[in-house]
């Protein structure tokens, strides 16, 4: 039996940490930690591959941090280490990239190594908003990187935006959406700002010039209409794609499929278990185990994950599949759904049930209520 597998590789190095970011990332001024990190990463990848002979890898995702801060020979070394797995000829291989961290030659070589999808962090097309976020690039830098990637042979490019950020208005967010969509990347992600504890924004939270809740809701609700005019279809809470360009790797997460994560702060779901690594880069560099959690996903948790992750997607839940899993109809499981449909928070169509855009705004509350029901 041959199963499919995704691989996530965490590259935890950045030029500078953004003010809102709580991701695991570190500076590396002299390049020594980068060298040691990639050596250790390759060792662990090769070791893990020995236990995965019955799997074919069809998605690989290099996240960060800023993966394109790696010297290109280091990136090549990791790609070579991945060869210990059986990699599908049609695998989607994504690298995150911050603007101005990779020139044409770097991107051309990435493409020759087999990386075929680039995810570029933009966040805004307005300089005052980028500055407030602590980004180290401009919209001009983004466009230079974007066109260099096109010239280097990338025909699948994603870009990220944020809404609800300092100094942003409904009008400036609409301009960012249109400015980006006019460049015609294949995929656009748009995430609401979350102020996480331990970040500079958390310390500044009472003084940040943020749009109010009504404005932020209007930004979210307006996205679908604006991007649909440019040929993008919403397929997940925060993700839009041209037809056929949905992120296959992220769909793996949302559909409860297996993946292995490598590097500090990386997580995995494999053979019925979830396990994750700590942020301890020093222990990682010493070759020590940094696994900080591991647990079997029991039947109840599997079901909860199925409900929550399926409802992140615009396709929602297949009502027939739900009945097979739960031995009851969705409306027996969650009677409030009928009210939510009548109030415009959920929709039933073609044997499926899903959130509307209005419902996504309060989806966390609805989902929390939903999984409390006794099955």
Can you offer a commentary on this structure?
The protein is an alpha/beta fold and 375 residues long. The chain folds into two domains: 3-253, Alpha-Beta Barrel (TIM Barrel); 314-375, no CATH class. It is 39% helix and 23% strand. It contains 16 helices and 15 strands. The chain has helices spanning 32-49, 72-82, 104-113, 127-133, 139-151, 170-181, 200-203, 213-228, 248-254, 281-285, 299-312, 319-326, 330-333, 336-342, 357-360, 363-370, and strands at 3-11, 55-64, 86-97, 117-123, 157-163, 187-192, 233-236, 239-241, 259-262, 267-270, 273-277, 291-296, 317-318, 346-349, 352-355. The strands form three sheets. Strands 7-8-6-5-4-3-2-1-9 form a nine-stranded mixed beta sheet, with helices on both faces. Strand 1 (3-11), helix 1 and strand 2 (55-64) form a beta-alpha-beta unit. The chain is globular, with a radius of gyration of 21 Å.
């Amino acid at each position: 039996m041959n199963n499919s597998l995704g691989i996530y590789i965490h590259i935890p190095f950045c030029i500078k940490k953004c003010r809102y970011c709580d991701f695991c990332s570190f500076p590396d001024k002299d390049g020594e930690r980068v060298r040691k990190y990639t050596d250790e990463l390759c060792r662990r990848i090769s070791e893990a591959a020995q236990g995965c002979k019955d799997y074919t890898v069809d998605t690989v995702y290099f996240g960060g941090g800023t993966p394109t801060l790696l010297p290109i020979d280091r990136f090549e070394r990791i790609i070579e280490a991945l060869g210990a797995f059986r990699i599908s000829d049609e695998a989607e291989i994504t690298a995150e990239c911050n603007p101005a961290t990779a020139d044409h030659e770097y991107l051309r070589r990435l493409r020759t190594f087999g990386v075929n999808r680039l995810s570029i962090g933009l966040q805004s097309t307005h300089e005052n908003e980028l500055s407030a976020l602590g980004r180290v690039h401009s919209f001009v830098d983004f466009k230079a990187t974007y066109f260099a990637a096109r010239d280097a042979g990338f025909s699948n490019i994603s870009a990220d935006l944020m809404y609800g950020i300092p100094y942003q208005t409904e009008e400036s967010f609409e301009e960012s959406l249109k400015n980006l969509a006019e460049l015609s990347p294949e995929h656009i992600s748009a995430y609401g700002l979350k102020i996480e504890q331990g970040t500079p924004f958390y310390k500044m939270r009472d003084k940040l010039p943020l749009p109010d809740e009504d404005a932020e809701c209007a930004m979210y609700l307006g996205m679908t209409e604006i991007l649909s005019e440019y040929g993008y279809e919403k397929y997940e809470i925060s993700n839009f794609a041209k037809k056929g360009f949905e992120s296959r790797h992220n769909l793996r997460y949302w559909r409860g499929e297996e993946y292995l994560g490598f590097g500090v702060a990386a997580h995995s779901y494999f053979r019925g278990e979830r396990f994750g690594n700590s942020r301890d880069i020093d222990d990682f560099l010493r070759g020590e185990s940094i696994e900080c959690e591991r647990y079997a996903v029991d039947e109840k948790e599997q079901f909860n994950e199925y409900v929550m992750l399926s409802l992140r997607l615009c396709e929602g839940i297949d009502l027939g599949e739900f009945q097979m899993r739960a031995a009851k109809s969705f409306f027996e499981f969650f009677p409030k759904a009928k009210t939510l449909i009548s109030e415009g928070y959920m929709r039933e169509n073609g044997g499926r049930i899903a959130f509307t855009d209005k419902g996504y705004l309060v989806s966390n509350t609805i989902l929390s209520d939903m999984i409390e029901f006794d099955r």
